[in-house]
Design brief:
By secondary structure, the protein is mainly α. It has one domain (3-60). The protein has helices spanning 3-25, 29-34, 39-60. α1 (3-25) crosses α3 (39-60). The longest helix is centred in the N-terminal third of the chain and has 23 residues, at 3-25. The termini are close together.
Length: 63
């Protein structure tokens, strides 16, 4: 697994945990850590979204 794939996987996991917290407890961890729609939180959300798209590629790779 390439380093970019590992980074994408970590970001996907962070996004999944954040959505789980939102769904279960209405608690947005990213917004709590970086501010409600601050520049940093928007960067994190964008990176998680890009990682999700990258994850689609991982589904179809054969090793």
């Amino acid at each position: 697994m390439k380093i970019i794939d590992k980074i994408a996987l970590v970001l996907i996991i962070i996004g999944a945990v954040n959505w789980g917290l939102i769904g279960l407890f209405k608690f947005d961890l990213v917004a709590t850590l970086f501010g409600q729609m601050s520049v940093l939180s928007r960067i994190v959300y964008t990176l998680v979204g890009i990682s999700g798209l990258w994850g689609i590629k991982l589904l179809f790779e054969e090793d």
